Amino acid sequence: MSGAWEPEPRQLLFLHRATAVIFADPSDYGGTVDALCSLVVPEVADWCAVDLICEDGTLARAAVRHRFPALNQAADELRQLPPAAGPIDPERVAAEGHAELAVSVDADPELRAARDRSDRAAELVRQLGISSFVCVPLLARGRRLGALTLAAGPSGRRFRADELPFAEELAARCALALDNARIFREGEEARRLAEEVARAKEDAARFGEQLLGIVSHDLRSPLAAVQASTQLALRRAGPDEALQRALRRASNSAERMGRMIEDLLDFTRARLGGGIPLSRREADLGKIARYAVEEAQAANPEHPLVHRLHYEKGEYDPDRMSQVVQNLIANALQHGAPRAPVVVETRPEPDAMVLEVSNQGQAIPAELLPELFEPFRRGAHGKARNLGLGLFIVREVVRSHGGTVEVSSSAQTTTFTVRLPRRA
Q1: Beta strands, E only, 291-395
Q2: Beta strands in 96-142 (DSSP E)
Q3: The domain made up of 196-272 is a member of CATH 3.30.565.10
Q4: Opening angle at CA 145, ends 139 and 146, nearest 5
Q5: In DSSP terms, which residues pair with 315 in a beta bridge?
Q6: How many other C-beta atoms can be found within 10 angstroms of the C-beta atom of residue 272?
Q7: Pairwise CA distance, residues 188 & 184, whole Å
Q8: Strand intervals (E) in 190-285
Q9: Class of the 281-421 domain?
Q10: Is this structure's pTM higher than 0.70?
Q11: CATH dotted code for 9-189
Q12: Highest mean pLDDT: which range of 106-120, 368-382, 397-411
């Protein structure tokens, strides 16, 4: 469109009305072209057609309207035929991006011959009547979307050369509305697809967690039978050392399997139930930590455990807090330097009690620190003898108490720090 073009007042008013109509609903791609045709006919043209480029590059007629309702049937039939029909060639206009204007079809022998062909499309064009037309490309944001055709016939009007900028401006606004509708539709499709993917992931995760819960729960009964039978066999094994060693290994394996099952149950409780349930009562965090240290020391006599404990009562779930201390000690023993001391400390702060478990050894890379408390994560070093749920359960139990857990790691020491409010 020429930059020097100034619309006449009636053209400017029509463009304002057209803008309001075609931008009314950004989600309605088809409604935009229908609304444009309804507005153009009969005020600007006797009939109007909008042809759009399909995904395969072909042109398809999206809308056509005639000023005389009796001829709309012919217009609808013409809509089903290839767009290049009669003297108008919207395919060329859409492909080349240049407008075509015919002030008088009768005055141009080539256009007149195209109109007077014997095929069905030319016959329909003659029924609709065409004495003058302007066909302009639909261009928006560097994209070629199709072509807009304004045709005159029964009314006797003619399209003049100075009306071409008006038609181009009308087409530009229509193209922008169509491209907005495309962007809106693609955005909605992307949002819908993202929602479907998210729902699928959520359903898959929930199914997996439910399955874990069911399996974990149903495994406890047969495992309890195995443990009871193993203990009974140990008591009756007599002096046979080889049999006793085999039974002790079986008993230890059953105990480890039992801990894994409890971890899986806690995992499913945390994921499906909104947190690990607590049974709070008056308890001393220092005593809880001391019992956990003594138990861990008995199971790992070759590994020194040092405790610096402050004894003070608060409102905790003692069984769950014992689980926290045990898991942190087990993690330190597993990933710390061999035979290096593990230090367990409790100390008071103004509004909280602090539990710290430290071990010496290789530093944890900084990029791995945020992932340590996620489920099914295992350290990059040390023996992997668990499911990778220990630190996840620590975090969930501490959160259920209203507390926080953090980790810091240097070249010498890795420390897990738990802060718990004294009261619920």
Answers
A1: 305-308, 313-316, 342-349, 352-360
A2: 100-102, 132-140
A3: no
A4: 100
A5: 282
A6: 13
A7: 6
A8: 281-284
A9: alpha beta
A10: no
A11: 3.30.450.40
A12: 397-411
